Amino acid sequence: MTKTIEIRNPRTGKFDYVIIPPPPKLLSQQCHRLRRGQIAWEEIGIAGRIEALKQWKQAILAERQNITDALVNDTGRLSISNLEIDSLLNSIDRWCNLAPQLLQTTAKNTSIPFISLQQAAVPYTLVGVISPWNFPLLLSTIDTIPALLAGCAVIVKPSEITPRFVAPLMTATNTVPLLRDVLNFVEGAGEIGANLIEEVDLICFTGSVETGRIVAESAAKNFIPAFLELGGKDPAIVLESADLDLATSAILWGSVVNSGQSCLSIERIYVAESIFEEFYHRLITKAHHLQLAYPTVESGEIGPIMSEHQAAIINEHLQDAINKGAIIHCGGKVEEIGGGWWCRPTVITNVNHTMKIMTEETFGPIMPIMPFSSIEEAINLANDSMYGLSAAIFSESMELALEIGMQIDVGAISVNDAGLTSMMQEGEKNAFKFSGLGGSRMGPEGLKRFLRKKAFLIKTNTNKDPWWFNEE
Ligand code: NAD
Fold this sequence. Notes:
This protein folds into 2 domains: 5-230 and 435-456, Aldehyde Dehydrogenase, Chain A, domain 1 (3-Layer(aba) Sandwich); 234-422, Aldehyde Dehydrogenase, Chain A, domain 2 (3-Layer(aba) Sandwich). The protein contains 17 helices and 22 strands. It has helices at 24-43, 45-62, 64-75, 79-102, 136-141, 144-150, 166-173, 177-180, 190-197, 209-222, 244-256, 276-288, 308-323, 356-359, 375-383, 398-407, 445-448, and strands at 5-8, 15-19, 107-109, 115-123, 126-130, 153-157, 183-185, 202-206, 226-229, 234-238, 266-272, 327-330, 334-337, 340-343, 346-349, 366-372, 387-388, 390-394, 412-415, 432-433, 436-437, 451-459.
């Protein structure tokens, strides 16, 4: 018998929604249905698929209020919920514009004059998407849209912590006949995620390193590609020449937006010792301006900590740092207000790499700052991490910023800004170290990942090939 899962509202702490995960047999039937639908989906070609996605966009717009309400109830935040929906709509437009060119096939000459090469591409039949709770809609659709345009069918399992958007999004999806045959969302926890991997031909997973490892192992057993987008502990390096007003504003946003619950949050700040004092005083002043989004969702910038488990981790990291001598200048704890968990922007100094706050993913609005005395030291500190997602560098000299950036083991660097990969998806990037595996989610590769390449090697003359047997 399938167990129901109760869903908590992070603002009130009340469990006020339930989901019922499908039994394995039903999940399997759904996947077979999607596989059947994929045949027609591939056959209609890119123009037909674009038309279906444009209809989906209109249907999402019609359901916008219900999707927003669902996201607000699951995440406790409004402006980012709107941003998630806008980002989905923009992503549909962007990929619809790019896809025709990316799917074009070309014939080429080869190194052998009488053999020509024609490249074709075949979509994976069924793609699985497993997503986390911190951007429920965005991260459930970011890979889904290019996969659909590539010609795949897609099954998505969003996080069991934030599943409410599924019902209104499916209402929108079901109004588009062709799309509803190739796109489905399935509700459930890790067990359903594990079952899903057994059903699909390729898996896109966004989540923790711990689960990512399990997903990678299952995918390897089934010989299917796994694209893993995992955790981060992004460093910011602030050089002596940096514009301090700009650096403190960018880092405050990069650390604290979404209450720090982003894989690419700035979680470690390294500042040249000559400007260290001034930097952290300015950061504290700016941090004091931010308010909790309480009692209403529009009251301030800082929403609740969405997962109870995460609230406990933030407190554990803070306590560990305090026990080891860290100085808290503002914020400093996760507190219960009105049934939810909240944390004010927290600036911390006197920190070092023996502390969890500098080495493990905290996922809270926490800004621990360390001084450095040489660029080499800053690079070593930035690289002293199991993670390698992204980073930020603040410097007057672009040349120096790029030189340092090349020595930091991460896939994306924001220069004189923070978290820019959340704002634009053009730049191809790979996750380094334990932050992920597989081709770039961003840029043209984001769609090409869903195609298996096929090479037609065509003999263009009627002569015998020079390497054939001499039969005379
Ligand atoms: P999580 O790993 O706990 O869960 C992610 C998803 O995996 C959920 O849908 C969950 O139900 C599912 N799952 C759990 N066990 C599974 C299993 N055995 N097989 C298959 N699926 C399983 O992560 P989370 O707590 O939801 O998300 C937070 C993490 O996600 C953080 O580490 C964060 O950095 C990371 N993240 C990374 C990116 C990125 O792009 N790199 C973006 C957002 C979040």
